[in-house]
Amino acid sequence: MFKNKKIALPIPLRRWYHNLDDVSRLREILSDEVFQRAVATLKENASPTVSTLSSDAQANNNKTVWLAGYCDFVKDLEKLTNAPAQNNQQNNIEEWT
């Protein structure tokens, strides 16, 4: 399915926000109903339930961490759709001029 797919190289986070088309496209993808349903399905299946909890604390911790990974991934993607506020003090230092 993804055999011939070109792999995108990672770029520094600060450069991500320079391409507003990518930011807008990602926002569209994240707001897509199918994507949101897929995320909700994965989260639901990863969530620990009374029947999936065991007496093994390590197994329970692993399930919780797995769920947190899904949640963090989606939150991090959402962060990429909003450029961080610029700190004008750092960008406009004119100490030596």
Q: Could you describe the 3D structure shown?
A:
With 97 residues, the protein is mainly alpha-helical. The protein is elongated, with a radius of gyration of 20 Å. The chain has five helices and no strands. The chain has a domain of 66 residues.
Brief write-up:
The chain has 97 residues and is mostly helical.
Number of helices: 5
Rg to the nearest angstrom? 20 Å
Unreliable segments (pLDDT under 50, ≥5 consecutive)? none
* Overall geometry: elongated
The percent of residues in helical segments reads: 55-70%
Structural class determined from secondary elements: mainly alpha
| Number of DSSP strand runs | 0
Strand residues, percent: under 5%
Question: Please, what is the average pLDDT?
Answer: 81
Biggest pleated-sheet summary: none
Q: Compute the separation of the termini in Å.
A: 57 Å
Q: List SSEs in N-to-C order.
A: HHHHH
Descriptive keywords:
elongated; 97 residues
Topology:
Layout: H1 13-16, H2 20-31, H3 33-46, H4 57-79, H5 88-91
